[in-house]
Amino acid sequence: MTCTELILSVEKLRKEHFRNSYRLFEIDGFFDKVSNAPKEEYDTRVAEEKVLRARNEVLVEDIVNGISHMKEIKCFHRWLDIHLKTCKLIMQDIDEGSLQSTRAFVAEECYTDWLKVEHGQLDFARPNVYYLRDYDAVFDSVLAEQYHENNSPDGPSYQ
After folding, report:
1. What is this structure's pTM?
2. CA distances from 67 to 73, 96, 124, 143 (A)
């Protein structure tokens, strides 16, 4: 497996984890707001929550294994650099306002978490699904920019 294939493979898993986490956030909101929900709807959400949590556990294992493999074939920092740049772009794209300043703070925390991944203090960073809902879209634009800058059909290449 090439470095690019591995990066894209791990990203597919990480993005699924992110989507599942966002859905879990929505389910938690449902539980917080609805005390008189129909039993069927409540039971459906409980069942969905169990499935998503179990799937996320498997995804975490697969992501961690993918990161280990990236380190073995020396492409971990390529992947990490894209995440760090993603966080920086989000931090820079902030207008004034309380929600925006919170978003900048959360993006900075995410950046710090990715640095912890680099130093082995975290298995992988989990962007905040509420304030950084567009994280994957920003990541994809950074990744596409890497393809374009390097004129590489095979993916980002770092000199």
Report:
1. 0.85
2. 10, 36, 8, 17
